[in-house]
Amino acid sequence: MLKAVGIVGYKSSGKTTLARTLARELAGRSHEVAVIKHSSHPLDLPGKDTAVLGEAAGQVGFISPQETAVFWKKPLSLENILPYLEADFVIVEGLKQGKTFPKIVCLREGPDDAGRDPPEDLFDGLAICAVGPADQIGGLDVPFFERDEVGPIADLVEEKGFKLPNLDCGGCGHETCYGLAREIVAGSGSLEDCVSLQPATEVKVDGQPLPLNPFISGIVRSTILGMLSPLKGFKRGKIEIRI
Ligand code: SF4
């Protein structure tokens, strides 16, 4: 299953450097790694081929013997892009508003842009660790690493990385994926709670499978799990009910 981790922080906090060293470390551990960088600025440079061709067409592809690139002249969501990647690990740099994956917070010297010390708005309940100058960690309740401790950071990311679908279907009992993401990071939730990530629920009548669309499948699954999970002896796994 695809794993993801975000790297967030203010300008000049070392996000790109950490994304690069972490990508190298994970690739060295035999992961297929992709990095997605979020930018608030336009991607192409005036006068370059991407801009010239992009004025005429909304999608521009580049193919060379060494590389391939596609530019869409519109914003796409992270979930739109992921299917194009051949990766089992995705590092998302700079998407502070992302709420469906855990994050590493990069701290920098001095107070944040709003003068707060440490920067509270970067800690939205999804931080699995902070990286940066030790004097910035203050009273924050997350593991802390120096910038060059990429090995232990990669260990943590391998253990805690995940990506929820961002469907906000409510099947896990939370109104949005953010609720479950926070629980997973806090250790009180699990990816198994996300009905959209689980194999389809199968219902048979007289031995014949009943067609269930993904929405109904999710409702059947979460209803039955909700009824059974408080019972003594319950554990997750294949469940059989015969009526
Ligand atoms: S069940 Fe999965 S997709 Fe639906 S809201 Fe919960 S985490 Fe999101």
Question: Could you walk me through the main structural features you see in this protein, from its secondary elements to its overall organization?
Answer:
The protein is of the alpha/beta class. The protein has a domain at 3-160: 3-Layer(aba) Sandwich (Rossmann fold). The chain has six helices and ten strands; from the N terminus they run E-H-E-H-E-E-H-E-E-E-E-H-H-E-E-H. Helix 1 (15-28) packs across helix 4 (150-160). Iron/sulfur cluster (SF4) binds at residues 164-165, 167-172, 174, 176-177, 180, 194-196.
Per the CATH scheme, the topology name of the domain at 3-160 is Rossmann fold
Strand content: 15-25%
Instruction: State the end-to-end distance.
Output: 34 Å
Question: Based on CA inertia axes, which overall geometry fits?
Answer: globular
- Which spans of ≥5 residues are poorly predicted at pLDDT below 50? none
Using the coordinates above, name the CATH class of the domain at 3-160.
Alpha Beta
Strands ordered across the widest β-sheet? 2-5-1-6-7-8
CATH architecture of the domain at 3-160: 3-Layer(aba) Sandwich
List keywords for this structure.
243 residues; alpha/beta; Rossmann fold; 6-stranded parallel beta sheet; two-stranded antiparallel sheet; 17% strand; binds iron/sulfur cluster
Quick recap:
It is built from 6 helices and 10 strands; from the N terminus they run βαβαββαββββααββα.
Q: Any chance you could write out the topology, listing elements then pairs?
A:
Layout: E1 3-9, H1 15-28, E2 33-37, H2 49-54, E3 59-63, E4 68-72, H3 78-81, E5 89-93, E6 103-106, E7 127-131, E8 144-145, H4 150-160, H5 177-186, E9 204-205, E10 208-209, H6 214-228
Parallel strand pairs: 1-5, 1-6, 2-5, 6-7, 7-8
Antiparallel strand pairs: 3-4, 9-10
Bound molecules: iron/sulfur cluster.
